[in-house]
Amino acid sequence: MSRNILICGVGGQGTVLAAKLIAQAAVSAGKKVLSAETIGMAQRGGSVVSHVRIGEDAFSPLIPKQQADIIISFEAAEAVRNLSFLKPNGMIIVNKKVVQPVTASLTGKTFSEDTMIQALNGCTPNVTCVDTDKGCTVLGSPKVVNTLLLGAACRTGIIEMKDIEQAIKLLVKPAFYDLNIQALHYGQQLA
C-alpha cells in the first residue's frame, strides 16, 4: 500500500530534514520513495512544503490534491494552508504553535492558534496537536521540533519508529543522535 506524506512549515523549522528522515526510513525498509520540496522564500520565514511518496504506485514526487494520507505540520497556519492536499478523513499531526507572518505583524493582524486548530478539526476528525514548546523545554533544545513531530506521527502507524531511529543514526550528526532519539520518543508521548 502506498503512503503520501506532506510535511509543511516555515523556513528554519527542520521540515526538510524531517522529509529526508522519512524518505531514508522508507529506503532502509526496502520501499520505493519519491520526494520533492517546494521551498520558496524559506530563508525569510516563508513556506516550506515537502512531499514524500512511498510505494510502488507513486510515479511523481508531488502529491496530488486530496491524496495525502497525513500532513505533518510544523506550524498551524501552514496546516490550514495545505489542507487541499489531505485526503478525506486523512490525518494531521500539527504543532499547535502559530508563527506570525511578517505581513500580519506589519498590519497589526494576528493568527490565533485556536482559530487554526478549529479550522483543522472542521476538516477531519483525525487531528493531533503537539505542544512542541513543552517538548523543547523538557529536552533543553529548541532544535528538536522536527523529531518531536515525527515521534507523534509514528503513533499513526504510517511511519515506523524503528525505521526513523535508523534514519536518525544515518543522517543526524553523532553529537545530536541521543537528543533526537529522546525527542522522537517524547513526541510519541506528547501525541
Please characterize this protein's 3D structure.
With 191 residues, the chain is α/β, with parallel strands linked by helices. The protein has a 6-stranded mixed sheet, with helices on both faces. The longest helix has 14 residues.
> Strand pairing plus helix content: what structural class?
alpha/beta
Regarding quaternary structure, how should these chains be classified?
single chain
**What is the CA-based Rg, rounded?**
16 Å
Would you list the SSEs in sequence order as H and E? EHEEEHEHHEHHHH
The largest sheet, given as strand count, sense and whether it forms a barrel, is:
6 strands, mixed
| Total beta strand runs | 6
User: Number of helical segments?
Assistant: 8
Q: What shape does the CA trace take?
A: globular
Q: Residue ranges: pLDDT <50 for 5 or more in a row? A: none
Query: What share of residues is helical?
Result: 40-55%
Beta percentage is: 15-25%
Please list the strands of the largest sheet in the order they lie side by side.
Answer: 2-3-1-4-5-6
Strands, helices and their partners?
Layout: E1 3-10, H1 15-28, E2 33-38, E3 47-54, E4 68-73, H2 76-81, E5 86-95, H3 102-107, H4 113-121, E6 127-130, H5 132-139, H6 145-154, H7 161-171, H8 177-190
Parallel strand pairs: 1-4, 4-5, 5-6
Antiparallel strand pairs: 1-3, 2-3
Helix pairs in contact: 1-7, 5-8, 6-8, 7-8
